[in-house]
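Retry 2 of 3 after timeout on previous attempt. Resubmitting structure tokens to design endpoint.
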């Protein structure tokens, strides 16, 4: 009786590889002139004119980077595109194309991949990028997803990780630590569910945190804002592994030391509240959590008046001198502790 209510699922072998690719990708429309040839030939053809080309790729492995017990496939598709686009924006470039490669086991029906591609398609529309190709193969277990993003920028607009110089200001967009706590909430609820599947989790009070974990956005708006304000960062990167490890990258690549002020690090009130519930320091979530996908950049002091008071941007520190150490300055006890990279457990 119950079986009658189960939707009919389509095994992958019903479609075959070519049928599957066509089925998943035929509703994607080309949105950029630079996508001369998309899906369907041996290779895609791009014409990015006389701009510099920016390319980045990321691989996501089931059980390592995501857990399908609590990550809906549509969200996974959306997020995996967004995190790649975030890398392109972090170069101060505009993403225009993506390639999506999947390895998938027969335990996934066609409908599951439809969900994944629905999420990919929403991201393509929201960020105006074209899906121009990829690869499809089988896997003996689980799902592997690899996404490559392509973008472009004028040579003089590109921002690298190594450009910070003496007495630059360190700026971060948005707020930090929420995605990490969102993951803690989802993992806790998943453990409860494993013990008692009848308990429905009440995630309402964790909305913001869970949203930041499952459906992050790339800060395209900040890239546009900086252009409007006529601010070109001296160096920039996105925050995927936690603030402290990213600052260490900016420091290592530029050769300058950084001071970061603990009380300046932007935290959402729900991060403070939930960190308390999990008995962790919210600053630790910001420093060593991950997946915030905010932008971290340095600007020259002369640009400070242009960003001053903007609610999306917070100055959290500054560079010091060449070859100096990196310190977190803690106000209450007026001390400085060396910044260490704990990084993100899932790389
Ligand atoms: P080949 O045999 O040359 O590798 P494929 O048959 O794998 O070519 O791919 C045919 C076309 O479909 C190509 O344009 C390829 O980029 C695209 N494609 C293959 N798999 C995917 C996928 N998972 N998502 C999007 N495009 C894909
Ligand atoms: Mg192929």
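Retry 2 succeeded. Sequence:
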């Amino acid at each position: 009786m119950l079986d009658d209510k189960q939707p009919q699922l389509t095994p992958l072998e019903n479609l075959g590889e070519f049928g599957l690719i066509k089925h998943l990708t035929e509703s994607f429309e080309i949105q950029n002139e630079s996508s001369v040839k998309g899906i369907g030939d041996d290779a895609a053809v791009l014409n990015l004119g006389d701009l510099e080309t920016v390319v980045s790729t990321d691989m996501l492995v089931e059980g390592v980077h995501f857990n399908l017990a609590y990550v809906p496939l549509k969200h996974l598709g959306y997020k995996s595109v967004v995190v790649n686009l975030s890398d392109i924006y972090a170069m101060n470039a505009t993403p225009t194309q993506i390639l999506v490669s999947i390895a998938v086991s027969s335990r996934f029906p066609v409908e599951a991949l439809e969900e994944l591609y629905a999420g990919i398609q929403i991201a393509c529309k929201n960020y105006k990028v074209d899906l121009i190709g990829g690869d499809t193969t089988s896997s003996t277990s689980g799902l592997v997803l690899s996404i490559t993003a392509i973008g472009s920028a004028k040579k003089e607009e590109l921002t690298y990780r190594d450009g910070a110089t003496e007495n630059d200001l360190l700026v971060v967009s948005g707020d930090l630590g929420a995605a990490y706590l969102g993951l803690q909430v989802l993992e806790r609820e998943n453990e409860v569910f494993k013990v008692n599947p009848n308990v429905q989790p009440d995630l309402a009070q964790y909305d913001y945190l869970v949203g930041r974990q499952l459906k992050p956005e790339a800060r395209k708006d900040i890239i546009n804002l900086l252009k409007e304000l006529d601010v070109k960062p001296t160096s920039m990167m996105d925050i995927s592994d936690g603030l402290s490890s990213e600052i260490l990258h900016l420091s290592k690549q530029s050769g300058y030391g950084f001071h970061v002020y603990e009380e300046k690090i932007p935290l959402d009130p729900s991060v403070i509240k939930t960190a308390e519930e999990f008995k962790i320091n919210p600053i630790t979530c910001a420093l060593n959590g991950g997946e915030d996908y905010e932008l971290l950049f340095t600007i020259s002091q002369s640009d400070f008046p242009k960003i001053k008071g903007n609610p999306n941007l917070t100055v959290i520190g500054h560079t010091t001198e060449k070859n100096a150490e990196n310190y977190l300055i803690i106000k209450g006890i007026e001390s400085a502790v060396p910044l260490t990279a704990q990084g993100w457990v899932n790389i």
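Attempt log closed. The CA atoms of residues 37 and 45 lie 5 Å apart.
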